[in-house]
Amino acid sequence: MIADPFAWAYDQLTALLLSLGMTAVWAQTVLRLLGAAVLATVLLVSTFFLIWGERKLLARLQDRRGPNRVGPWGVFQTVADFVKLIGKEIIVPTRADKAVYLLAPLLVVLSVIGIWAVVPLAPGVVGTDLEVGVLYLVAIGAVGTLGIMLAGWSSNNKYALIGAFRSVAQLVSYEVPMVLVLLVPVILASSMSLVGIVDAQAGMWFIVMAPVAALVYLITSIAENGRAPFDLLEGESEIVAGFNIEYSALAFGMFFVAEFLHSLTIGAVVTTLFLGGWRGPGAEAYPLLGFIYFLLKTLSVWLVIVWIRGTLPRIRIDQMLGFNWKFLTPIALGILMMTALVDKMAVAAGWNRTVVLLLANAAAVGIILASVQGYARRQRRRDQAQLAPVEAAPAAVH
Amino acid sequence: MLDQWVFIAFLLPVGLLLPAAAIALGFLLGPRKPNALKGDTYECGIETVGSTWVQFKAQYYVYALVFVVFDVEAVFLFPWAAAYNQLQLYMVLEGILFVAILAAGLIYVWRKGSLEWV
């Protein structure tokens, strides 16, 4: 029971439902509904502590104390904020498109919770082992961006609209490299199911076999989440608050919840795809231990995401588009072709897959760094040429 | 097969209902005193001028086209990747050729200068 509380609880509940006279199929369906409700509730409640944790970490990164008044170390700060938000008026602007305006925050939360349906939490514990899990991740993730677009458009506010435009630009730029690098774990595991991908990492985590793909995936996920340094859709200093400017009280709170929960969700997905999911010593025998491994890995990726937020300044929209289309997309294309080719050749030649792929990735990093260096050098030369004084210029005829 | 989707069919409505319940709670417990000024568009203190629902900048058009090309390409590539361990070397090379054609497309768009934000 202690080793595997999930299976124990499942068996107990099934026995209970069967004793009530349900058929096995109905009992399973009821338990699935129960599981879905518990999963969604736990996720939303965990947001209270996520927001507190992120604020505390950010404060430390910025040499502040952070929330420290409500409860020990300020743990209940978010609860107090929530209570305050309940007591505020939800203002629906008279000119807004009301139905869409109220639908948008729901969609944003829905997309984040929906991702967890396919993430394996521990051995044998997964919402559903979808055969097309990876495609589902991309699809449900895009719903969140859609929600942000709807929010910006329906508010009937120019700043909100600029935020929505930016979120469109963001969507069309980060999604291409994201989908391309998602193909890499699919290739390595020969499976689109997330459970299959975790199973394929029994020997070696994919981050060792595809470190570049893992990094590109992390960056594009942060862009999808729209948080620093990609938070230009709500850039306070330029467009007030971007897409959520007209929202107040809990309607605004839902955007907040979704954003903070999304960073943990990115951690969970990166863990599943590249860090071996729940795998670790003794995890098969003790599923509870597997869950703890999963949680620890997820929180470490989350920590990195918060760290990035506390470190990097916001980038401009042209920089973001350039970065995605001219840097990440070529890398993603190259890494995809390289992984497919090298992995097949390694298997055919009987080499060690891990070592060969790691070496290939190292070579790829070398090529990327060299080309970035070359680009920077050319750029510097161009800048200098522009700055150089024009000597004895004859009447310039263009 | 369809069995896999039952959980998602449960989770998505729950994921929609919970935030909806929170917002409904806000409507129930929060004050409701609408007035003309409060309901007005909040931009910068001055009354908003002109229509907000304008057309998207044409600049997005090229990006969106390239995006659609690449996204559709990915849908074709997923089955190829999922069947990777059953593929012969020449099948892998065919997939790579497919990606390479698209990479050539990216280079073309780049050379045309369509990836510059204006």
Would you give an account of this structure?
Chain A is mainly α. Chain A has 2 domains: 26-87; 93-371, no CATH class. In chain A, 71% of the residues lie in helices and 0% in strands. Chain A is built from 14 helices and no strands. In chain A, helix 6 (158-189) packs antiparallel against helix 9, helix 9 runs antiparallel to helix 13 and helix 13 runs antiparallel to helix 14. The longest helix of chain A is centred in the first third of the chain and has 38 residues, at 24-61. Chain A starts with a helix and ends in an 11-residue tail after the last helix. The mean pLDDT of chain A is 85. By secondary structure, chain B is mainly alpha-helical. Chain B has a single domain, classed as Methane Monooxygenase Hydroxylase, Chain G, domain 1 (Up-down Bundle). Helices cover 61% and strands 0% of the residues of chain B. Chain B is built from 3 helices and no strands. In chain B, helix 2 runs antiparallel to helix 3. The longest helix of chain B has 24 residues, at 6-29. The two termini of chain B are 48 Å apart. The model of chain B has no long low-confidence stretch (mean pLDDT 82). At the A-B interface, helix 2, helix 4, helix 5, helix 6 and helix 11 of A face helix 1, helix 2 and helix 3 of B.
CATH class of chain B: Mainly Alpha
Largest sheet: number of strands, sense, barrel closure of chain A = none
Instruction: Characterize the quaternary organization of these chains.
Output: heterodimer
Number of helices of chain A: 14
Q: Rg of chain A to the nearest angstrom?
A: 24 Å
Name of the CATH superfamily of chain B? NADH:ubiquinone/plastoquinone oxidoreductase, chain 3
**By helix and strand content of chain B, what is the structural category?**
mainly alpha
User: What's the number of domains of chain B?
Assistant: 1
What is the alpha-carbon Rg of chain B in Å? Answer: 25 Å
Biggest sheet statistics of chain B: none
